[in-house]
Amino acid sequence: IALMKAAGVKAENTVICDRDGVVYQGREHGMDQWKAAHATDTPLRTMAEAMVGADVVLGLSAKGAITKEMVASMAPNPIIFAMANPDPEITPEDVKSVRSDAIIATGRSDYVNQVNNVLAFPYLFRGALDVRARRVNHEMKVACAQALAALAREDVPDEVAAAYRGRKLKFGPDYIIPTPFDPRLIWYIPPFIAQAAMDTGVARVQIEDMDVYRNALRSRVDPSAALMQKISSAVRGGPNKRVVFAEGEELAVIRAAWGFKQADLGTPILVGREDLIRQNAAEAGLNFDDLGIEITNARVSEHNVEDTDWLYEKLQRRGYLRRDVARMINQDRNYFAATLVAKGRADAMVAGVTRNFNMALKEVQRVLDVGDTLIGLSILLAKGRTLFVADTSIHELPDAADLADIAVKAAETVRRLGRNPRVAFLSYSTFGNPPGDRAEKVREAIRILDKKGVDFEYEGEMPPEVALDPAGHPAYAFNRLTKPANVLVMPAIHSAAISTKLVQALGGATVIGPLLVGLEKPVQIVSLGASVSEIITAATFAAYDAGPAFQ
Questions:
Q1: Is the separation of the CB atoms in 49 and 57 below 8 Å?
Q2: To the nearest 10°, the Cα dihedral for 271, 275, 280, 285?
Q3: How many structural domains compose the chain?
Q4: Among 265, 363, 442, 532, which residue has the least CB neighbours within 10 Å?
Q5: Residue 355: what are its φ and ψ, rounded to 5°?
Q6: Domain residue limits at 275
Q7: Are residues 309 and 347 in the same domain?
């Protein structure tokens, strides 16, 4: 209340209510010095009376504190902040049932306009600390609120909007406050705080160039965390996805499924023997009761005959007998899990923890078809850059047509992740020098794309230094890339896999993937013995892949 008054709200226009009703001047019961400081000279005595004709209501109490009747009595276009957690004072659905003109915010991430202190406190303190402020005053808090309001009115970058697919992130009733994981917050908000501290004389350090300060903040953003926050938030904001974890008896998989569910990323389905899964979970201190994690296997499935018939029809002309297919469904978890996805009883699948990549992929491909192109795409995060490297897992020695297809599929995926793809075909050769058979395949891939007329930037063949710094090589002014490449198409799987692992081992880069892109249904295959975090990351991408942005 004090902050609102500092921002210009008139004291006579505010009414505070507690469990005993309106906090009015002269009230004695349940009063203290803080309530008394904001007591109102009013004849109103109940919250229902106070709500009549009100423009704004801020709820910081408990579930059910605001009723439909109260909302119906408010002024036109009322603003309702129902911020009790985990259940708001009134749900947005109940508000909309009586007031379609209302603007609503809650503390929940599954509704629009989430009010969360993560939007303010970290950046308020960042700005205060960077000028060594003696204290945090009202002017600094108001500056923080004004900065958030200003950011909500800014055009939302593609990478932010793409992470919240299905929602139009444009200033209006459903977007009055930035999303909690907007990566711009770290560099947008603190300069407002720092400036307010300097203007009010509480700063010990003066920032001479605010643009330099803002750019320094921007460089601190962890690209891996930012990327995964966007993906995770999009998964949470979309329809619930059912993700099958094929090797459900493994402790790492059980822990990953637990973490996946705890993070509210979807419904995990563990494939395995229920008694063993529960035993392993209990030994790890994990209680599955009422958590919503499903457990299944071929022995308890009521669809075995149906699934066997379906898969046999698919494989009967590829050398398989019905008994072979029945054995696959009943005895192999990858086949069983992939069939769950193929038949629509699950949305996505994660496998690979106990089997090598190629074996797991072959099993999955007997159940799920490949679309136009199948590739492995690795995400490389280093020195403030995010690079996408292909193909890191499928094509051993791609020909020119394969390279062109890899570029198209990689660019398509990168665009769906909210980035503008700029593709560089890497080689030992730089635009024809020195010549060679592999370099010629790259040049032919460029010609194929020229004929296709694709809608993304591409160039090649070139070494990494030219791809990543075209402006620094004036001898190649004809280079068609307008900015450094962010998609690197490698000439073969050997160079792709080796280079990403080298920079990870020696350069301290973070590598996500390879992500499997191109199957008819979302499947991610992790590396043998993958960590819990790697499995969760794969499951998160699988759930994201199952969303509308990838359809």
A1: no
A2: 110
A3: 3
A4: 532
A5: -135, 150
A6: 237-365
A7: yes
Q: Of 525, 124, 215, which is closest to residue 355 (Cα–Cα)?
A: 525
- Asked if 23 and 32 count as a contact pair (C-beta separation under 8 A), the reply is no
The answer to the question of residue 13 being in a domain is no
**What was the pLDDT predicted at 549?**
46
Query: How would DSSP label each residue in 459-491?
Result: EEEE-HHHHH-GGG-GGGTT---SS--SEEE-S
Q: Which amino acid is at 432?
A: G
pLDDT tens, position by position, 388-412? 998 999 988 999 999 999 999 999 9
Question: How far is it, in rounded angstroms, from Cα 298 to Cα 330?
Answer: 5
Amino acid letter, 305: V
pLDDT tens figures, 327-365: 999 889 999 999 999 999 999 999 999 999 999 999 999
Residue found under tokens 């209501």: 57
Cis peptide before 391 (omega within 30 of 0): yes
Residues 433, 417 share a domain: yes
Burial of 17 (C-beta count, 10 Å sphere; 0-12/13-18/19+): buried
Residues 139, 146: Cα–Cα separation, whole Å: 10
